[in-house]
Amino acid sequence: MNEIKYKRVFLKLSGEALALKGDDGSVKEIFDDSVIDDIAGDICECASLGAEIGIMIGAGNIWRGRMGKNLDHAKADHMGMLATTINCLRLQDAIQKKGCEAIVMTTVAMNGFTEVFSHEKAKEYLRAKRPVIFGCGAGVPFISTDTAGVIKALEIGAEIILMAKNIDGVYTADPNVNKDAKRFRVISYKECLERELRATDASASAIAQDNKIDTLVFSLKEKDAVKHAVCGLAEGTLITAEHIKSELY
Q1: Which of 30, 43, 140, 240 registers the highest number of CB atoms within 10 A of its CB?
Q2: CA pair distance 45, 58, nearest whole angstrom
Q3: How many angstroms separate the CA atoms of 59 and 55, rounded?
Q4: Residues 99-126: pLDDT tens digits?
Q5: pTM of this prediction exceeds 0.85
Q6: 8-state DSSP, 129
Q7: With left for phi above 0 and alpha for psi between -120 and 50, is residue 36 left, alpha or beta?
Q8: Domains, the chain
Q9: 3-class SS letters over 56-91
Q10: DSSP 8-state code for residue 117
Q11: Among positive and negative, which fits the CA dihedral 39, 40, 42, 43?
């Protein structure tokens, strides 16, 4: 398994994936050091194989905009953007400790902490096999990191979006609620929207469909999960811009 399938990828990580969870599934601590260490090692190994990796992380382990029920919506989303940057810096540190140089770029200027995002500069770093971690989402409120991630993937010219989750794909229903739920092998964005499966935000799906970039949803729980995805070996669900008939496992 030393041959990559995709040269330039965009990896979307949920903030919850970085957290240490309690027995009830709630966030016990915002960072699980062992999980972050594994992800960082996986990313470095992919880079050593020649993969060019852009990364965006959500902020669910720290703060989601919708948590600010009594706050101004825009202000709450601004807090979420700052939280994504904390996650970016944490992952950058872990990657660099593995001996692989990583860059954090944000859509909001944070002099002394990060570089301001430029798609041309980001692509220059990627060509040098330096993973680039994008913070602050789209830089404006009311837009999720799912949607911002699709936009960033398109800006850097990614071949595919790799969406790492705590679940191993897209199902016909919530498998935690419905034991009869079936996992899709492949499904179109159009069908996802029609079924209201919420694999990604509706706006993210619409932009990805219009710009013909596919998304692979896979589980981060498996060993070498990111490497498997980059090498085309991960089991999961491919969400495609093509108008095809869906397939189940």
Answers
A1: 43
A2: 23
A3: 13
A4: 999 999 999 999 999 999 999 999 999 9
A5: yes
A6: T
A7: alpha
A8: 8-248 (3.40.1160.10)
A9: EECCCCCCCHHHCCCCCHHHHHHHHHHHHHHHHHHH
A10: P
A11: positive
